[in-house]
Amino acid sequence: MDFSEAKEEVRKAADIVEIIGQHVQLKKRGQNHVGLCPFHSERSPSFTVNQDKQIYHCFGCGRGGDVFTFWMEYHNLTFPQSLKDLAERYNIDLPRYGDVAAEREKTELKEQLFKINDLAADYFHTTLVKNADGRPGRDYFSRRHISRETISAFRLGYAVNKWDGLVNYLRSKNISLGRGGKAGLLVPKKDGDYYDRFRGRIIFPIFDLNRRVIGFGGRILDDSLPKYINTPETPLYHKGDSLYGLDSAFKDIRERGLAIIVEGYMDMLVLRQQGISNVVATLGTALTSNQVRRLKGYTREVAVLFDPDDAGREAALKSFPLFLNGGISAKVLVLPQGEDPDSFVNRYGSDEFKELLRGETPIFDFYLDQALAHMDAGIDGQIKVLNEVLPIFMDIEQGAIKSLYVHRFSEKTGINEAVVWEELRRREDKRAESRDTSQIKNRLLSGQDPRKYGSDLQFLNLLVYYPETIDTFRDQEWELIISDPEIIKIIRVFMEKRPPGGDLDRIEGFLDSPVAKEQLRPLLMSEPMYTDESVSQAVNEFVQKIASVKRSQSMRKASAEGDIETLNRLIKARHDLDLPSKEN
Ligand SMILES: [Zn+2]
Description:
Elements: H1 3-13, H2 16-21, E1 27-29, E2 32-35, E3 47-50, E4 55-58, E5 64-65, H3 67-75, H4 79-89, H5 101-129, H6 135-143, H7 148-153, E6 157-159, H8 165-172, H9 177-182, E7 186-188, E8 194-196, E9 201-207, E10 213-220, E11 228-230, H10 246-256, E12 259-262, H11 265-273, E13 279-281, H12 289-296, E14 301-305, H13 310-326, E15 329-333, H14 341-348, H15 350-358, E16 361-362, H16 363-373, H17 378-394, H18 399-413, H19 417-446, H20 450-465, H21 470-474, H22 485-497, H23 507-510, H24 514-525, H25 535-561, H26 564-577
Parallel strand pairs: 12-13, 12-14, 14-15
Antiparallel strand pairs: 1-2, 2-3, 3-4, 4-5, 6-9, 7-8, 9-10, 10-11, 15-16
Helix pairs in contact: 3-4, 11-14, 13-16, 14-15, 17-19, 22-24, 25-26
Zinc ion binds at residues 37, 39-40, 47, 58, 60-61, 63.
């Protein structure tokens, strides 16, 4: 079997609804499945998967493609790697892959960085568990009640407080220090030499879902700053994309339908050690919308566990719109004053923690409680809170939920509900107005004639749903009635490549232009514009339109050349046909 045959095998075996459905909650709607887009923030689903055509398209952000595109984008992998993953999944043998040089280079660099990360993780881990100079790390973990099992399960490590510990180790393994720098583990000096980035720190390797090391977090042992450092941006590690522990938690998260989110590495480890398996950490930074999107594939419910201090409260407030926009229902676990997850679980045990889980507060209530606790007395205080909360209400798309929140808000703050609604409507009108204005502006600036554009789409829609009409147009100069050059490319591919009887999903592969590719998907997913009864009339109209444009062109040409005879003949022909003369 050659490579493209194998690719076709995989394409046949892999069902796009099944594959995407494992990462995005999909609901059947008409001929499509829809869900919340994993590639951009949205509250109502515009991410659309079509099983017939085996393609997906997001009407919000324009991303889309076939099952391979999804796998590459979602898991941040190259095409060869995605093909390999999917082939393995469906038990399809792959020939050795020989792709273009650049692609291979990228894959090779990533593989090398994975290897270096793996070596470094070994080095840090061995230092921690075996070496004499790992004692500070061992002392730290034993002080924090982290067991040997946990240390080995999460490959925890210790970086000695030296400038060249890892440098020397990588050298002994014949690894180029430049590559160590690319992995973010070493830092280049001015003289071209390198030194260790992680020194005198506890090391937490960060894994991808295939349990390969993509980066590291390092925590200092004492109170000096910075408390945490992470791997900088590398081809493998992107800040704010990953969640610590997701690789070992995602199955439990899906099973329980709940993810517990904590801030710190140590919080997560302590909870895991207590048998609470559906917990992930935000890698010591504030929660990001990308992290929320990652979780969305596994659950729609999260419990956020923030430290009960000012920083934790602030982080919870900031994350509220992220969840709201991400379509995730979020609750906040509030720990008793003075406790963090670590101290709480070590003191009371996991049963108490699970009990706590039952008393979780919806994140909006938590927000309200916090806002009210700091609300100044009197009308000025009310106005301040109202101003703070209105932008959040405006972002709530579902009317019922909005009503609920508005009602709750006015109940708690004592602000008249009618006043809240009035102010809300006023601001929403204002926002809609500015949105409309900017849309009109865009349309004017792009210089697109929507009437012409509409006929482009109608023509293609006709060809998609009534492919038997293609033959009628094949020998006609149909390009004359299409204004968008990208649509012309699509139609050409259609006429040349479309095999009888279907396989629309393969059309995309014949298109070179990425713009055409992106335009194709929504077109393929659009509902049919014609019925069996109206097809022949539509074909006639398009044929006449082509003829009419041709005539106008000939007339222009004839009049430019002073060819009165031809001009007269054309004018007469147009009258005979009684076609509208404003056609051009
Ligand atoms: Zn999208």
